């Protein structure tokens, strides 16, 4: 089923045209959409993406068994939730579809690795969206998220990978030298993967056999390799400076560090996890429960894995490394820039008050944070329901005709004419008012657009909760460097606000042009 951008009309399902999108400067011309009739036997990108996401999930279940247990629990909660909220399936897709949705995260060391990673994800129709500056949290990385962007592609499978790149420019000279030395001749892609990426770029797609081989080869890059590239001494040196650096620069590849399923009731899940004795982070990251906005996430501590460090004489010494963790998320409505700025302000305030609470002890923090956060939002955030978000123009929505609207095109036309005096200026405001009146008359309905991206403050909380307490930090007061990331990507990362508003505007055009 289709979801996220409406359920009714053919046209709201129509993909946004990537060639008219100003935001997609990069990685065009190699999408399977442009395949000629002679190349019709190519596997659609969403199918490769879905099969890859499944294969990754199967691999991670073996590597981190608790992840598999949690998937079952998430599915159970989603089943219950859908039963209690009939009609949700129309908006979100089937239970299977929602319960299979997930994002992963990796951390890369070199710009070339990011460049090739962008090509690898592009085979599956995933492009870089957003720039996340983690230096604000004293972490020496910056990030983007690879994901599909077209409405129908998201509806089929929205698999995303939060991808971070080490910022060598934030390391001191000696550390940078050591990191560069360790990473210099690292090759994280198999020859087979590189070959199939090249085939995809040359031919514009992959045949079924090539697609299967691609998934198999690509997966190797994300696997956990327990042999380190550096001596234990070097590892410990990295660790003291930054545990994130140690994770990035000591190993053979960018092991997938978590895979996060989407749950429909994060509080229910939180309760179940406590019952199971899983120690989660003290606070759910993101907005308070009860506000259908953005993204809420919880995570639990990384596993400790045994690691073999080369001893320099052809043998190994055994050590340990903390690399993988578990995370679950609940996704809600995407916010417009003004509302997002408001959200950022309130979260910053909550973090400050949280620091005060922490001084009274971890238990106090754990028990009082959510309440304090909800209090701040209750007082200051102007909308608490999707209807309120829409009326105040704070969230992104797609619009579609109701059955009544479809049967009465003349009523829509009449409403448009009444608003006609304002047609000349056709301001966003008058369109917004027109849509609201059509909704009041039950001619049009609005569907919230799901937030498909990430939140830097939450991401920082997730990173930190899974790094060793005292290490992993760089000097504060560093600056973001989007240009550096985009140079590595070989193009721009798309602006997610532009993507969401394009989705909304397209649906409005369709509804109003009938
Ligand atoms: C990425 C942490 C960020 C999220 O969901 O915000 C993230 C990492 O630890 O590599 O995945
Ligand atoms: Ni995550």
Distance between the termini: 24 Å
Please give the CATH architecture of the largest domain.
Roll
Helicity range: 40-55%
**Which small-molecule ligands are present, each listed once?**
2-oxoadipic acid, nickel (II) ion
From the helix content, strand content and strand pairing, which structural class follows? alpha+beta
- Total number of beta strands: 11
Kindly provide the radius of gyration, computed on alpha-carbon positions and rounded to a whole number of angstroms: 24 Å
Number of helices: 22
Task: Report the sheet-strand fraction.
Answer: 5-15%
CATH superfamily of the largest domain: Uncharacterised protein PF07063, DUF1338
In CATH's first tier, which class of the largest domain applies?
Alpha Beta
Shape: globular
